[in-house]
Amino acid sequence: MDWPGRSRVHGDPGRAGGFARPAQTLSNGNVQGAAHNLSLAVSPDGSAVVAFAGGGDGIWAASGTVLAGFSAPVHVAPGDYSNDSAPKVALDDAGRASLAWSRTGATEAATRSPNGTWSAPAVLANQPSSSMATAIDGAGNAIAVFGSSYSWHSGGLVAADPAGTFVYADSSGNAFTFAAGATGFGTGSGSRGSLADLKIVPGHAVMLAAGPVSAETVS
User: Fold this and answer.
1) CA 161, CA 39: separation in Å to the nearest integer?
2) Per-residue buried b or exposed e for 122-143, using 16+ beta carbons within 10 Å of the residue's own CB
3) How large is the C-alpha radius of gyration of the chain?
């Protein structure tokens, strides 16, 4: 919600079927700046991370739980005032998180340890990206996928299950299954149409592309 002179992000921790807590202010425009491009990750135990770009396009992250609420946002990386960062965050069951974003001249990422400490930003590419996605498995192995608007595939989506199976789908709906540390994707599933969403549970991945839903067994 935007008010004159301030910008705030609100979180609504609650239970399925009804919210148990009032809305919580996660970002105050007077401190973090005007928040935009939010990303949410939730683990099965109810832990959650909200990432967003703030004033000057700086990267912020707030951690907490669905029922207990969130701590104050942590400043993860400075911005470049371009207002085009689109941070994406992922979270595993142990509390480790991965966060990736783009800025003018670079694509960057950071990771969070189970105790909540964020690493220094690492440069993934010396060019900005038009799309970002990240995933992390149960052992803390993380991946970021990103693409330039000048590339034919323009990024895509990625998902990981706790056992270490990763699935990447490009923008044409072609999905690939691989393990942490893989040096290549191998044979894909074949294009299914324009990619909309990708989710994974142990043993199966579900992809929404160009209207139809495709379920694939993964191993």
Assistant:
1) 19
2) eebeeebbebbbbbbbeebbbb
3) 17
196, 208 contact by CB (below 8 A): yes
Residue 210 vs residue 217, higher pLDDT: 210
Domains with residue ranges and CATH for the chain: 24-136 (no CATH), 152-219 (2.40.10)
* pLDDT at 167 > cutoff 80: yes
Q: In this structure, which amino acid lies at residue 168? A: Y
Q: Which segments of 54-155 are extended strands (E)?
A: 59-65, 69-70, 74-77, 88-91, 97-103, 106-112, 122-125, 131-136, 142-147
Q: pTM of this prediction?
A: 0.82
Question: Dihedral angle at the C-alpha atoms of 57, 51, 218, 113, nearest 10 degrees?
Answer: 110
pLDDT in tens, 12-45: 555 555 555 677 787 777 778 778 889 999 998 8
What count of other Cβ atoms lies within 10 Å of the Cβ of residue 188? 16
- Which DSSP state fits 212? -
- Residue 52's pLDDT band, with cuts at 50, 70 and 90, is very high
Structure tokens belonging to residue 117: 């400490």
